[in-house]
Amino acid sequence: MKKKFQVCFILLIFLDFGSFKLSSQQINSIYFLENTPIRNLLNPAFQPVSDFYISLPVIGYSQFDIRNNSVALNDLFYKQNGHTISFLENQTGINHFLSKLQPISVLQADLQTNLLSFGGKTNDIGWNFSLIEKLNIKTILPADMFKFMLVLTPDILHNAYDFSSLGIDASVYSEAAFGISKKLNDKLAIGGKIKLLLGSENISNVNQKLNLNAGLENWNLSVLGSINTSVSNNASNINLVPSKWNDLFKFTGMGFAFDVGAIYKLSPSLTLSSALLDVGFINWNKNPQNLNYKSDFNFNGITQLTSTMSTSQLNQAFNRLNSINQVLDSVVNAFKNSIQVDSTANSYQTSPTAKLNLGIEYALWQNWLHIGCLSHTEFYPSTMTEEITMSAITSPTDWLNASLSYSFFNGNFASLGSSVAITTGIFQWFIGADYIPFQKADFTLSKFNPSLSKITVPLPYQTKAFNFSAGMQLVFYKLDKKQREKLLHVRKLNDWNGLHEKLSPSNDCNCN
């Protein structure tokens, strides 16, 4: 039972957490896809190719993302002697799992959908407006928490654990944004965006202190923190997914954020770009509830509880979680009596996840192929995550723009991605994903319930993340077809033949 509980707990954290939906909040492979106006979300200096575009609710743009920065499924389950086993089966598996953990693991997911967006450009000035509904969660899990769960007290005399970074921030909010960009000259373009953030639901916590020192003589737990909620109805009813359409417009918090970006053309073939996104806050001041807790707890009953054990039994008890139920139960009961809890109703602030994008793009073979590299960094209160995505981009015709990408630091081969934008008349369709799961494992639910033995769930095996984005815009041009092709760096077959002749050695021969 204890092992089954541990398996369920780990799967809940790393797999089923997506049912909440937490922010990468962007599809990296779209960054260099110049034909789609949606990439303005990744850098406000990007201008649309079309003179005007409009995106309708939901079908205009929707995105889903779930990820963590530590482990993939193959770190939790793997094949051994023809059987699928979990990392909890033996100490080797546990050690491997712990070695894969970052000092601070970040779990996040998000679901965002377009309510309305439109924009365009006039001469050298681009502009846009968007109204997007966002549902996101970010969870911070210190490695010490997993070490305590799986190993408990490897040192029988003294073990220090720091859980202070443990936290969660789950929010539903609407983002109304207005952006403007300008080409200052042939080389430099800048852009910015101001965002009004209207919050509907939030639950978050802050720990100033959460430390455990555990040994043979006593356990000391120092706790100081708070759990905060702000909801549209009442404090006991938190709906991360609004049940009614009009619930989207019941706001309990308000804040602001901004984006800034720049593009610099270093040479005709080399372009640099950068963007700082989502720097801001939300102040939650309607129906706020704060549950404040603190404790400086000392438990010195360990010696009495274990005095009847032999030395070997004592070591085993302190090294195996399922061997010390008596100790844990006694500590928990004593802690309940020592913790001090009080409730207040003060407003509080949370922040969206700030992000930094740094891009470099190089054109090859007279713009037949573009190679791009994007560095994407996300900033959290106690850590940050980094990712690098390499992309190959081509526009063989004015109606097709496609990219193939590979992301480092977030998976193995499963981090191959692709994005495609297709224009048919005034309709432009796009689809993108950064982590296409080429390898998957069939997980049988009989591990939890024998009656579910015939049900298997395909799960990505090597990737730490999954995201997907799709949408459709109406685009309108003043330029004719040839002018658009020039603007989009389109190179047709006859251009390729001419380039091939120019690059090939001459076949002329003077035989005299």
How would you describe this structure to a colleague?
The chain is α+β, with helices and mostly antiparallel strands. It has a single domain (2-500), classed as Porin (Beta Barrel), CATH 2.40.160. Helix content is 15%, strand content 48%. It has eight helices and 24 strands. The protein has a 20-stranded antiparallel beta sheet that branches. A two-stranded antiparallel sheet has the order 3-4. Strands 22-23 form a two-stranded antiparallel sheet. A hairpin with a 4-residue loop joins strand 16 (354-364) and strand 17. It starts with a helix and ends in a 9-residue tail after the last helix.
How are the SSEs ordered, and which strands pair?
Layout: H1 2-14, E1 52-55, E2 62-68, E3 77-80, E4 83-86, H2 91-100, E5 104-122, E6 125-142, H3 143-150, E7 159-162, E8 167-183, E9 188-214, E10 219-230, E11 253-265, E12 270-284, E13 288-299, H4 302-306, H5 311-319, H6 325-338, E14 340-344, E15 348-350, E16 354-364, E17 369-379, E18 384-397, E19 400-408, E20 416-424, E21 427-433, E22 440-444, E23 456-460, E24 465-476, H7 481-487, H8 493-503
Antiparallel strand pairs: 1-5, 1-24, 2-5, 2-24, 3-4, 5-6, 6-8, 7-9, 8-9, 9-10, 9-11, 10-13, 11-12, 12-15, 12-16, 13-14, 16-17, 17-18, 18-19, 19-20, 20-21, 21-24, 22-23
Class by SSE composition = alpha+beta
Q: What proportion of the residues is helical, as a percent range? A: 10-25%
Give the overall form: globular
What CATH calls the topology is Porin
Q: How many β-strand runs?
A: 24
Measured between the Cα atoms of the first and last residue, the distance is: 92 Å
The averaged pLDDT comes out at: 78
Number of helices: 8
CATH architecture: Beta Barrel
Low-confidence stretches: 1-24, 305-311, 317-324, 491-504, 506-512
